Amino acid sequence: MSGPAIPAVGRAALETPVGRIVVLADAERVRRLSWSTAAVTDPCPADGSVLDSTVRQLGEYFAGRRREFDVDLDLDGLEPATRRVLLALREVPYGHAITYGELATLSGTGLPARAIGSVMGANPVPVLVGCHRVLAGDGLGGYSGGPPGQGPATKRWLLELEGILPPPLW
Question: Rounded to two decimals, what is the model's pTM?
Fold first, then answer.
């Protein structure tokens, strides 16, 4: 007797102003988005596939032409509280920010604000679920996305793209 079939996973990469992003997806949902310094030589995703749609939408986002993503995300394997926090975060639109404490309240999980930072670090699909929009009460807070060692700069760039922070003067 065999178990359920494991969906095939494909990957595609996109060069962005904040580094190379790699997207993993099965036939129905995006499973992971991460930054990579390694070359990705997988074939181009099939037209109309989840990978194709995701890479296209990310390209539009980084070009300033997209404010929402309409691809399905796989958040099923996450802890229930983590999943609830990320689903609550999806309600924070482009161009808006929320503090860790506000997101804790919005999620209804009972997690303290400090724990929300750990949840943001567990986000398997940053940018698509905008964890860069979550700020500390006294500043930017952390960010684990971006090329190695570039988390805070990546977060700042994404916040500037969305108009949450003004661009630098010099």
Answer: 0.91
Q: Please name every residue paired with 134 in a beta bridge, in sequence order, or none if there are none.
A: 98
The sign of the CA dihedral 66, 126, 83, 23 is: positive
Question: 34 is written with which tokens?
Answer: 């991460």
Per residue in 34-59, pLDDT (tens digit) is 999 887 667 777 788 999 999 999 99
Distances (CA, A) of 77 to 35, 68, 81, 104: 21, 23, 11, 20
131 as an active site residue: the answer is yes
**Of 30, 127, 131, 134, which is the active-site residue?**
131
Structural domains in the chain plus CATH codes: 10-62 (no CATH), 80-161 (1.10.10.10)
Q: Which two tokens mark 65? A: 């032409």
